């Protein structure tokens, strides 16, 4: 059985111009700063949201030029530059503005907001963990409008770190799918199998290894579906589906998965209708991931098949 994603995952959509050519054009960056918009991200990776969009502040309020810790995100539809900084947040009283977490509520975002916020979180998280050279420990400085850090002694550049991970829907080629629960998840919360790619390993090989390590199944016919950035703190989720034999026994050897089961398409459809696992549906027999995740998109795409 083959299928495609029903839609592009939210965090993979393009809603703004990344304008990467401006990252090294200092004069253009400074010239656009006075009219630029600013995304504020708090230490918990939350942002201010109103009417389904991230709240954009006036960057000029921070001064005449971008502060050293600001990161350039690109340009939005009206041509304005957009930057981001780490900042405490407080929603104005008696307003529709709220402080929200992308992981919990990102499904309400428009495409531009999702792209800006995911990029801002990924870059700001990376800067906080890359303040020293991995070679000699020298304090590094932000460069390329926040898209690199340089060693002032050697001139060596470091670029944002991305950790690739696979996420796979394992099915029987017909109407059953494997869903698993990690040991630290509440009862009834299930999702797809996932794991980080190892050095010298392809995505497809990682799928085979991770599925076998986590639940003991041998998979075949590994097929690519799509990808999604997951900036918590710096992952790229690469989605696949693969076929396994329901006659094989589950074996939980790596300690990460505590329970896995085969579920029918009808059971999955009922769970999708009940909402996401953060929706507070206490009566649902099966709770599935939130709509911001590629896991949800993959599951929905499989469930739609006849």
UniProtKB/TrEMBL annotation:
PROSITE patterns: NUDIX, NUDIX_BOX
Domain of life of the organism encoding this protein: Bacteria
Catalysed conversion reaction: a 5'-end NAD(+)-phospho-ribonucleoside in mRNA + H2O = a 5'-end phospho-adenosine-phospho-ribonucleoside in mRNA + beta-nicotinamide D-ribonucleotide + 2 H(+)
Cofactor(s) the protein requires to work: Zn(2+); Mg(2+)
Keyword ATP-binding appears in the UniProt entry: no
EC number: 3.6.1.22
Keyword match Thylakoid: no
Domain Nudix hydrolase: 160-289
InterPro entries (alphabetical): NAD-cap_RNA_hydrolase_NudC (IPR050241), NudC-like_C (IPR049734), NUDIX_hydrolase-like_dom_sf (IPR015797), NUDIX_hydrolase_CS (IPR020084), NUDIX_hydrolase_dom (IPR000086), Znr_NADH_PPase (IPR015376)
Keywords from the UniProt entry: Hydrolase, Magnesium, Metal-binding, NAD
Any one GO molecular-function label of the UniProt entry: hydrolase activity
PANTHER family found in the cross-reference section: NAD-CAPPED RNA HYDROLASE NUDT12, NUDIX HYDROLASE, NUDC SUBFAMILY
Family from the record: Belongs to the Nudix hydrolase family. NudC subfamily.
Family annotation (NCBIfam families): PRK00241.1 (NF001299)
Descriptive protein name: NAD(+) diphosphatase
């Amino acid at each position: 059985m083959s299928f495609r994603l029903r839609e592009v995952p939210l965090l993979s959509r393009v809603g703004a111009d990344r304008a990467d050519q401006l990252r090294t054009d200092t004069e253009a960056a400074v010239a656009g700063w006075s009219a630029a918009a600013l995304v504020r991200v708090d230490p918990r990776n939350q942002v201010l949201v109103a009417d389904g969009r991230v709240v954009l502040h006036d960057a000029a309020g921070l001064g005449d030029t971008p502060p050293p810790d600001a990161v350039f995100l690109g340009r939005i539809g009206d041509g304005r530059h957009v930057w981001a900084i780490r900042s405490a947040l407080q929603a104005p009283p008696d307003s529709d503005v709220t402080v929200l977490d992308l992981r919990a509520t990102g499904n309400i975002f428009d495409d531009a907001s999702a792209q800006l916020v995911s990029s801002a979180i990924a870059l700001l998280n990376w800067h906080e963990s890359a303040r020293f050279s991995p070679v000699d420990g020298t304090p590094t400085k932000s460069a390329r409008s926040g898209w690199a850090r340089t060693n002032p002694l050697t001139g060596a550049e470091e670029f944002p770190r991305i950790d690739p991970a696979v996420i796979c829907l394992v099915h029987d080629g017909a109407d059953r799918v494997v869903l698993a629960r990690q040991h630290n998840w509440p009862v009834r919360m299930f999702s797809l199998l996932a794991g980080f790619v190892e050095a010298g390993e392809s995505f497809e090989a990682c799928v085979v290894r991770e599925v076998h390590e986590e639940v003991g199944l041998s998979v075949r016919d590994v097929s690519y579906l799509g990808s999604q950035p997951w900036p918590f703190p710096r992952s790229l989720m690469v989605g696949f589906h693969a076929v396994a034999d329901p006659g094989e026994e589950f074996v939980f050897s790596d300690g990460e998965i505590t329970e896995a089961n085969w579920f029918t398409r009808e059971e999955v459809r009922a769970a999708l209708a009940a909402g996401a696992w953060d929706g507070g549906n206490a009566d649902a027999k099966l709770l599935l991931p939130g709509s911001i995740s590629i896991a949800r998109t993959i599951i929905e795409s499989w469930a739609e098949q006849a």
